[in-house]
Amino acid sequence: MKKCHKWCAAALLVAVVAMFVVYKAVNRVPSAELPQNERVYAIFEDGGCLSCHSADPKLPFYAKLPVAGKVVMKDIDSGYRAFDMTAMMEKIKLDEPVSAVDLAKVEKVVLDDRMPMPKYYLVHWGSSMTTEKRAIVLDWVREERMSMYHDDLPEERAAEPVRPIDHELTTDPAKVALGFALFHDPRLSVDNTVSCATCHALETAGVDNHRYSHGVNDLLGGVNAPTVYNAVYNFVQFWDGRAATLADQAAGPPLNPVEMASPSFDDIIAKLKADRKFSREFLKVYPDGITQANITDAIEEFERTLITPDSRFDKWLRGDDSAITEQELHGYELFKQYDCATCHVGQNLGGLSYELMGLRRHYFADRGTELTHEDNGRWKETQLERDRHRFKVPGLRNVEHTWPYYHDGTREHLEDAVRDMGLYQSGVELTDAQVNDITAFLKTLTGEYQGVPITTTNSRDNIDGHDHDHDH
């Protein structure tokens, strides 16, 4: 009997050693002789990332089994909803720059050791994210991020996913002056009553603080107007991304029937040409005359100057530890801990990707009101089911002054929006203390325009009352 025990113990030891050897062999680190992008690509490929994070995953054999199949399909649905890695993988393969959002998502998952899940790597040996693999990926994220920005942050802040606003961008002063005039010119509207500044007033944080903006004849739009400040950092414009540039965006409202309602740009041009003094000034900047392209180009050039640097948080990023309080710093750590900084990244803390409204919990079901066409988000443009309820992520600069919040303007107070985002996007119920700390951090993002702190002169009571009249 003792002999049997010894043989069993020896056999077990051999089996364990063999399994360890096999595990180490299949989880080998890509050769250090390979270029960095190829090492990272191999790690993600071996990790089976595209098995869940792509539109066309390669299903394992057990996906056809009754019980296991349901689990597999649920994981695939969840993974694809959260992050489609297809484009990122292609860029890595070609050694091209990867988006700041993709970097942030990868970094957070690796830091949290979330992927691959145990139920995946226990079946797919070789997919584990080992310590060595983790180090390779995190080094890659850091180097990619630092090559993306040229802000010379101190070493201890150089890899932060959030970046400071530029102090200035290169612009043409003559075009900027003309763009400023056009931005404030009500002649872009059919009845000469509404200008760009009507909904995006510079003295009220670049918004109008209405749930829905009021156009000609006091008509209401169907979506909350985003701030014009720092829009230059957005990768597309509008909540649904239908405008690729600021100039494209500027061409939309003048012809929108519930905003400025002009019949055509020809009508706008005719009114501007009738103003001889304005025409002379315009020709000094654009010798080919007043055209739609020149009007929107000038407005875009002006909007490139609408940046708000020197927030207290930017000063902290640049090395001033006294710029923010311990509570505000803790709020930033919570902001990163609960995945907020995987979408709200970069200089504008957003505006760089489309994300699903209600990733962890169904926002629209809880809202309880009938869905509108605007609630479809990016789907309006693509007709792809995956894009339904996806929106361009809003930037968070000056967010304490840009109420109400969300595309539907349903949250009046920043604290409520923070609490909701924890629940709907991150799947956590934030405590009152956590909400207060994150809100305190968000208030450090208020910057300055031309040396003057951003604020709003609107009264919540007056705005609320005006909007409520229309809601009834």
Strand order of the largest sheet: 1-2
What is the CATH architecture annotation of the largest domain? Orthogonal Bundle
CATH topology value of the largest domain: Cytochrome Bc1 Complex, Chain D, domain 2
Distance between the termini: 88 Å
Number of DSSP strands?
A: 4
Rg over CA atoms, rounded to whole Å, is: 26 Å
The CATH homologous superfamily of the largest domain is termed Cytochrome c-like domain
Main beta-sheet strand count, sense and barrel state? 2 strands, antiparallel
Which structural class best describes the helix and strand composition? mainly alpha
Helix content percent band: 40-55%
Unreliable segments of 5+ consecutive residues? 15-23, 464-472
Count of discrete domains: 3
The rough form would be described as globular
Question: What is the CATH first-level class name of the largest domain?
Answer: Mainly Alpha
Beta-strand portion reads under 5%
Oligomer: single chain
Mean pLDDT: 91
Please give the count of helices: 20
